[in-house]
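Quick look at the format.
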Amino acid sequence: MPDLPLWFEIGTYAILGTVLLFDLLLVLKRPHEPSMKEAGLWVGFYVSLALLFGALMYWLADAEHAGQFIAGWVTEYSLSIDNLFVFIIIMARFAVPRKYQQEVLMVGIIIALVLRGIFILVGAAVIENFSWVFYLFGAFLLWTAYKQATDDDDESEDSSENRLVARLRRILPMSDRYDGGKLRTTVEGRKVFTPMLVVFLTIGMTDLLFAVDSIPAIFGLTQSAFIVFTANIFALMGLRQLYFLLGGLMTRLIYLKHGLSVILGFIGVKLIFHAMHVNELPFINGGRPIEWAPEIPTFVSLAVILGTIIVATVASLLSPAGKAAQAEAAGAESADGKPSAPEPVHRER
């Protein structure tokens, strides 16, 4: 498979960095709740940008590069949408004002990019030197797929504020109210932290957990660190606007986690097959590659991933259970159309 031009890789990082910086400055300068039209235009822009990038890879390299990127991007985008469900729980749990939820989401995206960047560099170095790690990645993804399919939704809510965060809130002086998007405020002449600090820390820990799952998944589709990183960037770009665009519809996607478990399980099997194909472990087949182990082509992976997402989405939208979930979520909203107030942020004191 031919390499991509160096100028293309450097230019990609420069352009994507500029777009992310512009997005961040826009949020900091004008915090607000975007309209459906605004959110839809931004999501459409980022999706079009990703598809254009895939087309450029096809033109500059070949269909294999483009297919690996599209498959990786769709997988990471799907996992990122799953991440949004947890973000919604965190926002409601800590009663974050909707005006400042964009800022929280942007910080969460930046934290996710940094963590995933570190994981990608480490993962690429490990894969380069130890081919047997594919066995570990495959087994981990199969276990993750099982947990994804069987875990109760209530467990996700419990993870939004673990013991570390609860302990932090008891140790640090913290106000019961937000002061805009500030991390610190003054109460009766005393400097204290606002609940926004706990929100950022909770978002960061959630990002860490999702990075642990998502990086082995995409390395099962490509071993190119450049494709892995760009797929993650494109998956996270527009996630903030998607949060507001989907709104209550996200509660209706009840089969999304099952679809993701199928995707993770498929990639886990593919990783194990790949590990067998390049086997070097002396206690497995005498350290020789296992010839009968198939190498699943990229176009097959892409078809399975897209097909699974489409089936899970359509099934959720048509399912009576999905409609009931959306109706239940709508019933929890107040008469003015805004979410009803969640539990007070100081309830654990």
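Next, a different chain entirely:
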Amino acid sequence: MIHPMAKVLIIEDDDVIAQGMARHLVVAGFDAVGVANGETGLARLRYERPDVCVLDLMLPGVDGWKVIEQARGEGIGTPIVVVSARGTEHDRVHALEIGADDYLVKPFAMKELVARVGAAARRGTRAQDSRRGEQIEIEELRLDPRNVQAYVDGASAELTPTEFRLIYALAVDEGRVLTRDELLQRVWGRRASHRDRTVDVFVRKLREKVDHRAPRHTFIQTRYGVGYKLEAAPK
């Protein structure tokens, strides 16, 4: 179930596309509102904290890349679903690396957009619901669902909600290798598409924020050709 009337901010300068996305999202039960430039979009992200942001990259003035970087730099954790005609692997990976949560290449089916936004809304709702899981402690790593945060040797790892969802999904099955498909379904609510590197990008971010900061262990382990597991290994 999607959180009742989850608010979606659409940042898109093409009025026809923006209206089409808003119309389909409203029919699906979302409260969708659109703005046409990055500066206004950032302001609404700051002060309204929508449940999901749908973001075009090629915007006048402050472009979508800067919106992502600025929002994440200010600690805004709203899930960001990028919609862009820029469809190269480099563009997709770079957007994920700087803080986007998902990426759709134009043209896309509106049903897929609604599905991606719905999955992002559910991720945000679950991440804030402390009843969905207990605190997990593994050596110097502590995962706290109540605060949607990981702590390494007592210090916050400053994870985004999506990053937390991924590490928590791995920790719940501590020691078991989860495939990329399993992780995409658990965290992003979708199956892998051709050459989908979403999981790999987020694992790399977790290693930077968790493994590199941990004084005594690494936690995110790779089973080459299969997937990833969370298991404490001495450094």
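Confidence is low (pLDDT under 50) at residues 126-131.

See the schema section for token definitions.
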